[in-house]
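Tutorial handout. Part one gives the primary structure; part two gives the three-dimensional structure as tokens.
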Amino acid sequence: MNEQEILALLTGERNESVFVCRVSQDQASAIGAKTTEVWLSRATVIKQESKHYSTSKDLYFMVPRIIAKGFVRFQPPHHMIFILHEKTDKTRSFKAVVKATKTGHELYLVSIHRVARGDVRAVYRRTTSLEKWKRKRREVGPPRNPT
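Part two.
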């Protein structure tokens, strides 16, 4: 991740999407993605500013760490949700959502924000683990993506 490119995207000096980090091949495959590269678009930045006005540049800089160190849950057919608990903050966690495009050729960060620890339970209820998702896919086959 290039922090200068992220800053340019956040300030509107750049409109092209910026590479943020990678997910594992298993994670990408679970949501039908053919790539492991996660990108951040200007459209997401604008949406974040309108919905989560407290989103800071430091939060965007944490995305690689959230994805690498956080636990992941899947929300079929195309979303992964990463949650990172910090030992220094017992009340709030970090949440990053990554989505595969319908064709599976791209992965985008679609949301990043802080969540109350109590709200993490709701994430668990609405999502599934990688292992459970793999078992289910073996039973019904891989997701179908338009080509």
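Part three, for discussion. DSSP finds seven helices and six strands in the chain. Helices lie at 3-11, 25-30, 42-51, 57-61, 63-69, 120-126, 130-140.
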